[in-house]
Amino acid sequence: MNIGDVASQTGLPAKTIRYYEDIGLVRPKRDGNGYRAFNSAELHKLAFLARSRSLGFTIEDCRALLALYEDRGRASADVKLVAHEHLARIDRKLAELEAMRSTLSYLVEKCHGDDRPDCPILDDLAQPDAVPS
Amino acid sequence: MNIGDVASQTGLPAKTIRYYEDIGLVRPKRDGNGYRAFNSAELHKLAFLARSRSLGFTIEDCRALLALYEDRGRASADVKLVAHEHLARIDRKLAELEAMRSTLSYLVEKCHGDDRPDCPILDDLAQPDAVPS
DNA sequence: GCTTGACCTTCCAGCAGATGGAAGGTCCAT
DNA sequence: ATGGACCTTCCATCTGCTGGAAGGTCAAGC
């Protein structure tokens, strides 16, 4: 299986697959012509990576998850810990974005958005200590 | 005013302020000894940048907002457009994170998190097409 | 057998937005 | 004059790819 086939089957760009090899996430063999030759185990790993990345896990998380996946003697607690920490990161990010969203939507609503220079958005940005009503 | 004073007044690390000079967001004069000499206008700009960045605007957004801020003849519509587009970006990001959060919290809940290898999280990652109940 | 086009390879550069650290100059108080 | 807290520049690093150049390979069609 060449890289193009793996790309279309996993949805990962070929560039990304090469990058994953670079950083040691997969180690495909090579054909005589130098082409990467993926077997079904590698394909499976890459699908696993694609799914993990799509859930927002970092590359290092993915590396850890993949190692756990391949370790028949793993404790599910170890997997849960990784996922739980990631969930906490997501919650922090969500809170941050929601705070931004709240301020921004208030300001956007308050701005006339016409051809006059008067602008509550700029007023807020210029006065970091202003507290919206 | 030296960079350290500006850093403590704006909350921006000195490194970041130098970086902002590098990319042309501020242009402080220099003292005879080569030290950056910030006046109150530069201080104000940096506070504006700090606030804009804290609301998640990109550096290029900040550049545009700063230019609008300094343009007495601006139309508030132009400011509103930048903010509105940013709000839309935030909403897309929120939706993405909420989707991740939903899947992850479901999986974390389902995982026993004990010393046994059986793990619904890994099961999901390994089967990208699985649909949580 | 030759061309064409779709593959594949490596390598290097760049994105955002800083941040860390090394090596060295300056300023001020003691 | 010495120490420590400043300041300077420059270069490397982080995350996770992505783009592009320059070139090798393969299979189909003529």
Task: Explain what this protein looks like in three dimensions.
- Two copies of one chain form a homodimer.
- Chain A has 133 residues and is mainly alpha-helical.
- The first copy, chain A, has two domains: 1-56, Multidrug-efflux Transporter Regulator, Chain: A, Domain 2, CATH 1.10.1660.10; 75-133.
- Helices cover 65% and strands 3% of the residues of chain A.
- Chain A has six helices and two strands, in the order ααββαααα.
- Chain A has a two-stranded antiparallel sheet with strand order 1-2.
- In chain A, β1 and β2 form a beta hairpin.
- The longest helix of chain A is centred in the last third of the chain and has 35 residues, at 76-110.
- The mean pLDDT of chain A is 95.
- Chains A and B meet through α3, α4, α5 and α6 of A and α3, α4, α5 and α6 of B.
- Chain A binds a DNA duplex (30 and 30 nucleotides) through α2.
List keywords for this structure.
elongated; DNA-binding; 2 domains; Multidrug-efflux Transporter Regulator, Chain: A, Domain 2; 2 strands; homodimer; mainly alpha; about 130 residues; 6 helices
Q: Helix/strand/pairing class of chain A, anyone?
A: mainly alpha
Overall 3D geometry of chain A? elongated
Which radius of gyration of chain A do the C-alpha atoms yield?
23 Å
What's the pLDDT, averaged over the residues of chain A?
95
The total number of structural domains of chain A is: 2
Question: What pair of chains forms the biggest interface?
Answer: A-B, 53 and 53 residues
Oligomer: homodimer
Proportion of strand residues of chain A: under 5%
* Tally of contiguous helical segments of chain A: 6
The beta-strand count of chain A equals 2
Q: State the low-pLDDT regions of chain A, or none.
A: none
Distance between the termini of chain A: 61 Å
Q: Order of strands in the sheet with the most strands of chain A?
A: 1-2
Give a short account of the largest sheet of chain A. 2 strands, antiparallel
The percent range for helix content of chain A is: 55-70%
Which series of helices and strands of chain A comes N to C? HHEEHHHH
